[in-house]
Amino acid sequence: MKEFKIREVRPSDTEDMEETTRKSWIQGQKAFLTDEELGLASGSEEFRKTEQDIESRLEKDDTFVLVAEVDGKVVGRIRMAWAGEADSFVNPGEAQLRSMYVHPDHWRKGIGTALVEKAFERVPSRFHAFVVEVFEDNESAFGFYRDLGYYFVEESTLGPEDISILTEDRKTLIMRKDR
Hints:
Order of helices and strands: EHHHEEEHEHEE
Oligomer: single chain
Mean pLDDT: 93
Number of helices: 5
Strand content: 25-35%
Strand order of the largest sheet: 1-2-3-4-5-7-6
Helix content: 25-40%
Radius of gyration: 15 Å
């Protein structure tokens, strides 16, 4: 197995991040998305970030992005958020794992776990819990977070107004991990 390192995102990571995010999202959801949604995901702008997007995120105090790198290429990323950058289901004192993607070629190599652990170290100590939202049908993601100590809190819904790739509402699970 190749060694990887975890570091802060850089504006120059945009191309690798887009490929990793798109491929991970499609592979992770393909078992339950419609063919139309998979087609939309293949060409969607949803996964594109510009260098300016990353630079502006680096300036914010209520979010950060870490990446996993193998041989100089970004193969994973995680975004943590709180306050104004978090979703409405996030309570005071909680930080949200907004998104995490690992390129499918690097699944089951410890990169996702390392990203989560390093991100939790970086979240300010005033936060006593972490929350994440996963699609109910994404058994792999649910199992991954459960194995990291997350537990089910409540159901929610994401639809086309939340993620442009979706063509219908999908049930999600809100999971929580206490610090």
